[in-house]
Design a protein that fits this description.
de novo design (two linked rop proteins), OB fold (Dihydrolipoamide Acetyltransferase, E2P), RecO, alpha+beta, 199 residues, 5-stranded antiparallel beta sheet, NA-bd_OB-fold
Length: 199
């Protein structure tokens, strides 16, 4: 396996003293995992932040081996992690994608939608500007994985968007996250509580 592609960094799990197992979403190859040597070191720690746009190079001698990953930062989401609402939104969409998507199955529309959602979170003046995009991403994810209907990005004020968000709790929990730990949905509940305070 030899892959070089633009990717969105979704999650990092510590491995050994300084390495991490990273999960990357690419448009062409889907969700990929790789061993990032020094991922918790001073140089790479700012790169392996969920939501960051990166250039990843993965190489392995066989398909059964975990690939080694070299990662270069393209765009950092780090500046927005100091804002509680933006940080909660970035954490949620990245955790959802890393948990729900099957490995090595390309979903180009989800890759593009996640990139657009992250851009909206980081550049909209307030949550009112990106909340609809975030819920639209959830709807698209359910549909692409075969669990949703023809739902669209919700339009309207924040109260209406939160209403749609509440309606999606059961399908997300039941279909996409049924076999995962509860901390993924806890990230969504935290985001929902923060958005609810804005109404």
């Amino acid at each position: 396996m030899h892959v070089r592609a633009p990717a969105i960094f979704l999650a990092a799990r510590p491995h050994g003293e300084t390495a991490v197992i990273g999960r990357f979403l690419t448009g062409e190859y889907g969700l990929l995992a790789g061993y990032v040597a020094g991922g918790r070191g001073r140089n790479l720690r700012p790169v392996v932040i969920p939501g960051n746009a990166v250039e990843v190079q993965l190489s392995a001698k066989s398909d059964s081996q975990l690939p080694f990953a070299k990662v270069e930062l393209v765009q950092s989401r780090g500046p927005w992690l100091g804002e509680p609402l933006a940080a909660a939104a970035i954490a949620w969409v990245c955790a959802l994608s890393a948990t729900a998507l099957p490995e090595r199955q390309p979903y180009p529309s989800l890759y593009d939608a996640l990139g657009g959602t992250l851009d909206a979170i980081c550049h909209a003046p307030s949550a009112r500007g990106w909340a609809g995009a975030l819920v639209g991403f959830e709807v698209l994810l359910l549909r692409e994985l075969g669990y949703g209907g023809a739902g669209q990005r919700p339009l309207g004020d924040l109260a209406q968007i939160i209403e749609v968000m509440d309606d999606l709790v059961e399908p997300l929990d039941h279909y996409l996250l049924a076999d995962s730990r509860g901390d993924v949905m806890a990230a969504r509940q935290r985001l929902r509580d923060l958005l609810g305070r804005m109404i």
